[in-house]
Write a structure and sequence with these properties.
Layout (H helix, E strand, L loop, with lengths): L2 E5 L3 H12 L3 E6 L9 H10 L3 E2 L3 H5 L4 E4 L6 H9 L7 E4 L5 H12 L4 E7 L3 H4 L5 E4 L3 H9 L5 E3 L6 H29 L3 H11 L5 H32 L5 H14 L14 H11 L1
Parallel strand pairs: 1-2, 1-4, 2-3, 4-5, 5-6, 7-8
Antiparallel strand pairs: 6-7
Helix pairs in contact: 4-5, 8-9, 8-10, 8-11, 10-11
């Protein structure tokens, strides 16, 4: 049976583990830097244990017996993660990087990993992991992309190999993110401005008339609350998006503005609401009002 290990064990890794395990895969171990943080060690171990995964004390332990290593760290740490793991990899192993990062960063990570003899495959996650779980659409690129796609597809993953050139998959995702994260930032800015006029309901009701196929109040409630949890990560990811857009010869005006607006929300440090996110856009806007 194919053995899988995770480097990084946040929300995405946990959800992927759930689906892979239910589909019969052997998710054997994970290494996350949280294990070195005395304040977070026990919570990390408890999460891994609840999913039947060994919380390795270091990267060497995590990858020792793995056939596939999935890197699921924050985007700014992909090179650090690759350097930390590379010394313990060997030929025959596949290192799959699912992080949101620029094509340049992916290629740099590939050089680090492939120097060990292991193979590097980049994965571009093309939708939100929740609610799709391990069936979230992914594009794969790399010399072993087709082989990896066959293996992961056998466990129900929705993966598609698009070629061998590292950077192709992440380029597609970065371009898509201009719209997806830009959409969130635009709605955020529109609603916080509408709040100043006590007009948030009026704005959403107007959007409902213009785009009747979309439930705008439900979407606003869900997406805005999730931003409390994800704005910092998404803001950081927009830096990679801007780099990619620049590499294509386009000034990243929208990408930079999106990163700035999401960063504005992240700077409020609303961690106290993470355990119980607001269940509607009205409560979200009250929180923003109080902290801005």
């Amino acid at each position: 049976m194919t053995k899988i290990a995770f480097i990084g064990f946040g929300e995405a890794a946990g959800l992927l583990t759930d689906g892979l395990t239910q589909a019969g895969a052997d998710v054997a171990a994970t290494y996350d830097i949280l294990i070195d943080n005395p304040e977070k060690t026990e919570a990390h171990k408890a999460k891994a244990d609840s999913k039947g995964v060994a919380a390795a004390a270091n990267a060497e332990q995590a990858v020792a017996e793995a056939d596939i290593i999935i890197s699921a760290v924050v985007s700014k740490e992909i090179l650090a993660a690759a350097k930390n793991v590379a010394a313990y990899l060997k030929a025959g192993q596949i290192y799959m990087d699912i992080n949101s990062a620029s094509p340049t960063a992916k290629r740099e990570a590939a050089e680090i990993i492939e120097a060990s003899g292991a193979d590097f495959v980049e994965a571009a996650v093309m939708d939100l992991v929740p609610p799709h779980g391990h069936k979230v659409p992914m594009l794969l690129a790399g010399s072993k992309a087709a082989e990896l796609a066959d293996t992961l597809s056998s466990y129900g993953m929705n993966v598609k190999a698009i070629g061998e050139k590292i950077g192709n998959a992440s380029s597609v995702k970065m371009v898509r993110s201009v719209f997806m994260k830009g959409f969130s930032a635009i709605l955020l800015e529109s609603l916080i401005a509408a709040r100043k006029l006590n007009a948030e309901d009026a704005v959403l009701e107007s959007l409902q008339i213009t785009y009747p196929e979309f439930n705008w109040k439900e979407f606003a409630s869900t997406s805005m609350s999730r931003l409390i949890k994800h704005a910092k990560r998404q803001s950081e990811e927009m830096h990679s998006v801007a780099v990619t857009i620049e590499e294509l010869g386009i000034e990243p005006i929208t990408a930079n503005a999106t990163g700035a607006r999401l960063g504005w929300l992240a700077d409020m440090e609303l961690d106290e609401f993470l355990d119980e996110l607001p269940d509607n856009y009205g409560k979200f806007l009250e929180i923003v009002d109080e902290h801005s």
